[in-house]
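Friendly challenge for the regulars: who can give me the structure tokens for this chain first? No prize, just bragging rights.
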Amino acid sequence: MARPKNDTFLRALLRQPVDYTPVWLMRQAGRYLPEYCETRKRAGSFLSLCKNPRLACEVTLQPLARYNLDAAILFSDILTVPDAMGLGLYFAEGEGPKFERPLREEWAIRDLAAPDPHAHLRYVMDAVSEIRRALDGTVPLIGFSGSPFTLACYMVEGGGSEDFRTVKTMLFDRPDLLHRILDVTARAVADYLNAQIESGAQAVMIFDTWGGALPGWAYQEFSLAYLRRIVDELIRERDGERVPVIAFTKGGGQWLESIAAIGVDAVGLDWTTDLGEARRRIGDRVALQGNLDPVALFASPEGVARETRRVLESFGAHGPHSGHVFNLGHGISQFTPPERVSVLVDTVHQFSRRFHGGAPAPAGSD
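First reply, four minutes later:
Bragging rights claimed.
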């Protein structure tokens, strides 16, 4: 696994010196891009797009053709894992993901088993391999998975939820059943991420999207403990190169120190946490990723540039600017004007150079 020509993203995750702050965006291949919408239309459905390695590769590369991003992220969905467990994933028009067989009965929870990613999720591994070949050593490829608790939310609720009433009731009334789900899902996620690394992913990220919905004690027991277990089981070196791991709990800024202590290389932050304060709290224990509010991309070009500089200045106020990967505080909105992303990426690359020992690069010199 040779280092890519542009390894700025990997170096930043490992808190090594870089010339500028690298940038990529959560959900950077998505509906805000007209070319993505065209490919999805050809695929016939979102799930068909995810399960077609050639088309998944195509949409993964689309944002890199538009923008000077420092990493690609595998195009897939976090719910492919519970789908491979036999829960029957489908997408209802205008309603988001649904499961035909949510986990409500004790017998179904007892029968739950982790899938073999090389068999039941072969299409994901084929996509990873195809994307790596297509990238041809230009930028790193990020693999990912949902966290056990986040996946359990969908698996028990049967889809999205405003209050997670069903899964939280299970947590309070039958914690043994929820632990059973989380135990099997943690095994599945560790196997899944390791298979992605073996197929060519050069960094991996765990999305704990709903961990922030838990009380503090429950977060430690039902989310963080399983994140730690996964991190402990991941392949951390491949062909002589470190494979960095990022953990992101939306709404988890209050648990920053606890997340940093589970062995990850970087912690992702949403926009509600001050990045400079997070850096002061965490020191040099891990790198930090984030954390522009995605809605800032609806501002004028001047507003986008100003808010982007604000994030960079917040991190840079606490010493030399190493160990930061610029990103949004959550996924990019489907309604984002594509040209605003150009402003963001160019501003990060140009303005951040002053925090890395050099003057800002001239416009267009990225």
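DSSP finds 16 helices and eleven strands in the chain. Residues 175-199 form the longest helix (25 residues). Your move, everyone else.
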